Amino acid sequence: MKQNPDSYLLYESGKFITYNIRLKCVMKNRVDAEALNKAAQIAFKRFPYYAKEVNILPNGEIEFRHNSRPLYVGPEGNRHVRFATKEVNYHLCSISYKENIIYFNMHHGLCGGCGMMFWVKSTLWHYVKEAFGVELEKGNIKTADTPLTEGETAFPDPEALEDAEPLGKINTDTVYVPALDYARHAVIAPGKALKYYELEIEANDFMKYARSNDGSPNSILASLMFRAVCKVTSPKVAKAIRGNILCNYRADVGCPETYHDMVRLMSVYYPREKLENKDIEYLSTVTRSVMYMQMQPEYSVKTFKAACESKEGIDRQNGFLNKRVYAMTHSPYTKPPFGTFLISYVGREDWYGLENYIERTHCITDGHLMVEVNALRDKFFITFMELNSRHKFYDAFCEAMREENIHFTEHGGYERKLPFSIYPKKSKGYL
Fold it and tell me: How many angstroms separate the CA atoms of 88 and 96, rounded?
């Protein structure tokens, strides 16, 4: 790879760069703007790999330059955050706030969700210390005085990883994909505000339910989503349903501490005729067995090498336009197996002393029928995203949980207001 490996995702875009995410932290107290700005600048200096400015070279390559400007921290406005512009000091990340909410905004190319949490927890730790004048339990939170480690920035050498064929094959049969919802949004309402919905569940109750149904949080949520999709689709249209579940594979390729984005999909195929009338315990058992089979490191190595081959293919193209076309047509995200829905939960984060200051957290992303999960010690927080304006899938998901006597508290819907990222003006000649 010729470029910073984090920069390649920037090619996969249209007018605005997509793959932007927001982590919403609802605090127990109103945000102290002055303390937040001071803490954010202190914490951000700890993460030079996030301080990047986008430049496009004459040959069409995207270059990440170090950006020494301050991180933008400001009130949440009515417009979308626009990365790579003067208004955020040309960064690909920023912080905004309103009332008792702090939003961490970031382009997904900079890191994965696990890497983003390094920055989020560090900023919040310094903020609480600055705003309340208290000493907090630190745990493994990377504060300003924590040395930068080699493992934190490690990136595997694909040539050093051994090829081995995984045991078993992933089912790639055709399944129901809510394509009309995607098309309707793209053609009829591309500028309309997208909504997301928040659910709060007691952790002890949910884990007790999961264990009693041979499940984990991922297998239970996937089973409930399968049941929800069945509720609002015809068996003639949705003959089979696939749940894709994110898996963090950093350790499988020898980089367990890296900030880089290293997640892959586990894919669970649900033949509707056989499974629609099964109970959650049965569905969860099926889901867990498929997940277990696909947790093999061999799948991780194949995924990583395929991603590297895609990047090298971009390197071989001449000019920015050709690189963009290749990136969008050869992206790992365009390869089967395509899913009906996606569950994104790669494990519980430890918040240590911050637990006493945070009410709840939610990850807001692109996606349709996408379930993002965050957690504190005593709560699970589900963020449900769909494009359908009637939120029929969300309603069906809630109904499926009520049928299982899973108690939850609803918040929202809210406008997603995901950031935009705009190519620098110097790149106009290459679009």
Answer: 11
Q: Which two tokens stand for residue 393?
A: 């899938």
| Residues 295 and 267: beta-carbon distance below 8 Å | no
Pairwise CA distance, residues 90 & 84, whole Å: 4
User: How big is the chain by its Cα radius of gyration, in Å?
Assistant: 21
Helix (H, G, I), strand (E, B) or coil at 52: strand
Tokens 């005729």, residue?
273
Cβ-based neighbour number of residue 403 at 10 Å: 12
Nearest to 348 by CA among 87, 117, 31, 96: 117
Sequential DSSP letters for 55-71 = EE-TTS-EEEEE--SPP
CA neighbor of 343 nearest in space, from 272, 286, 265: 265
Asked if residue 46 lies in contact with residue 143, where contact means CB atoms within 8 angstroms, the answer is: yes
DSSP string, 113-158: HHHHHHHHHHHHHHHHHHHH------TT---TTSPPPTGGG----G
Here the tokens at position 138 are 């630190």
Residue 316 to residue 323: CA distance in whole angstroms: 8
> Model confidence over 152-194: pLDDT tens digits?
999 999 999 998 888 888 999 999 999 888 777 766 666 566 7
- pTM greater than 0.90 (yes/no): yes
Q: Whole-angstrom Cα distance, residue 358 to residue 381?
A: 12
Closest CA to 73 of 109, 47, 48, 43: 43
d(CA 116, CA 258): 11
Are 303 and 264 a contacting pair, CB within 8 Å? yes
Q: Are strands 341-344 and 240-248 parallel, antiparallel or unpaired?
A: parallel
Decide if 349 contacts 117 (C-beta within 8 A): yes
The end-to-end CA distance of the chain, in Å, is: 22
For 246, the 3-state DSSP assignment is: strand
Classify the C-alpha dihedral 86-89-93-98 as positive or negative. negative
Contact criterion met (CB below 8 Å) for 196 and 414: yes
Name the more confident of 194 and 123: 123
| 226-255 pLDDT per residue, tens | 999 999 999 999 999 999 999 999 999 999
**Cα dihedral sign for 87, 89, 94, 98?**
negative
Residue range 87-101, pLDDT digits in tens: 999 999 999 999 999
Single-letter amino acid, residue 126: H
Sign of CA dihedral 265, 271, 274, 277: positive
Asked whether the bond before 413 is cis by omega within 30 degrees of 0, the reply is yes
